[in-house]
Amino acid sequence: MLRIEKRASVCLLLAAALVLGLAVFCFRFFWNGGRWVSFAANRHLYNSKGELSVGRVLDRDGDVLSWVDEDGSRAWYANPTVRRATLHVVGDAQGKIGSGALVAFADKLSGYNLLTGAYSPLGEGNDLYLTIDAYLNYVAYNAMDGKKGAVGVYNYQTGEVLCLLSTPTYDPADPPDIQEGDPQYEGVYVNRFLSGLLTPGSVFKTVTLSAAIETLPDLFDRTFTCTGSLQVGDELVTCPVAHGEMDIYSAYTQSCNGVFAQLANELGADVLSRYTQQAGLTGSYQVSGLRTAAGSFPFDGLTPGQLGWAAVGQGSDRMNPCALMVYMGAIANGGRAAVPQLVLRTETPLGFPPSFYFSRQTERLVSSDTAQVLADMMARNVTEGYGAGRFPNMDLCAKSGTAEVGGGKSPTAWFAGFLRNEDAPYAFVVAVEEGGSGSQTAGNVAAAVLNALVNGS
Predict the structure, then answer these.
(1) Which DSSP helix (H) or strand (E) runs through 344?
(2) Per-residue pLDDT tens for 191-227?
(3) How far apart (Å, rounded) are the C-alpha atoms in residues 120 and 381?
(4) Which of 17, 55, 144, 445 satisfies CB 3.0 to 4.6 Å to 125 for a cystine?
(5) How far is the C-alpha of 189 from the C-alpha of 400, rounded, in Å?
(6) Are strands 412-419 and 396-403 parallel, antiparallel or unpaired?
(7) Are 431 and 414 in contact (CB under 8 A)?
């Protein structure tokens, strides 16, 4: 009897292990089935050249950007400039652009479902509608004029990314033979908007200003004097010109390094670190499953001079363009914003939408009261510093940045902000590597894209 009981216990344990293993497998099958079936070795979905041979990629207006031709090969939009401008969101036939839809959303394009798998009696593959407007990418690509960098525009209420450009790029219909070390294609397979980390320069002063507004009660009653340089500890913090006497409004508009370095040391490293984390600049977002790079702001252990430079976006500061865009959207939206998304919808060959996408909100990145103050100050930047005439029919709030990167290179140019127009709830970011002046170079790119978006020109 004892032996029978032992055997029964062993059988029960084996049965429990089998049930548990089956449950784990079913869960993983439900959760990962689409990714499993879209593995590039699956010859039901990929041709002999390794190209995804099902599904169409379209922009938000229904322009077909990539499809499968009669011989089972990938085909592309007719205009070569549009093809280059949308490379990092559509992808390439060889799968080298990991952020492209042909790789990142292959499961959605495949038509996979739990009932019939990759085979569907309704037809082969799905139509995947992206949130981007290919024309805006086209405008952004031309405005970048061959410079490396990133451009992003999104609706901070819905999360829909209307423009996502990363340069350098190439024509996926005629891919070049890229040799290692070729400066023309340096980082071409990287989506700089999602995965790039760049020195932020003065756009980061918005975070320092946010901390000062909430921590220094006399901030708006004070005046500052800039002589062109300020000794902070063992560092000399310099400005391009002597700004003279200013209040905090003028210090922000004129982007005075000395004032913000002084404020940083009054605030301290812990406060700056906390506000940077709260702004979402050290975290990572999931953009339709694509993870953005997390920024790096090592404030701990800095000397007073180093902390001063860090507070104006220099030193070891590194920021992701997408994260900055979301922070701008949060300021515009009272402290929180929608998380960006790239997939608008998918449709079967019969027009049924098998997948639905819902916007998600960030945590609170800035208090609502501070967001209102920041927005008004950023609007003043435009009217008094950047030229509102460049942005017709727009209630624009913005901050520029000119980030020194050393090595004999020209600065990285930044321009980021948002619109307060009720019918245009858009936040944006432009980063141009070796672009020089943020307000000019990056500002001109932003003006071109926003004019196309708002005014259709």
Answers:
(1) strand 343-347
(2) 999 999 999 999 999 999 999 999 999 999 999 999 9
(3) 55
(4) 55
(5) 27
(6) antiparallel
(7) yes
Task: For residue 46, give the 3-state DSSP assignment.
Answer: strand
In degrees, rounded to 5, the angle at the alpha carbon of residue 362 between the alpha carbons of residues 357 and 363 is 145
Residue 339 amino acid letter:
V
DSSP string of 90-128? H--TTS--TTSHHHHTHHHHHT-BTTTBT--TT-SS-EE
Packing angle of the helix pair 257-267, 304-311 (nearest 10 deg) = 120
DSSP 417: E
> What are the two backbone dihedrals, phi and then psi, of residue 391, each rounded to the nearest 5 degrees?
-130, 70
Q: What local confidence, expressed as pLDDT, does residue 106 receive? A: 86
Q: What's the CA angle centered on 455, arms 454 and 457, to 5 degrees? A: 120
Q: Distance (Å, rounded) from C-alpha 139 to C-alpha 77? A: 16
The β-bridge relationship of strands 56-58 and 127-130 is parallel
| Residue ranges, the chain, pLDDT below 70 | 1-3, 5, 21-50, 52-53, 111-123, 351-356
Query: What is the per-residue pLDDT across 381-399, written as a single tens digit (0 to 9) for each?
Result: 999 999 999 999 999 999 9
pTM above 0.70, yes or no: yes
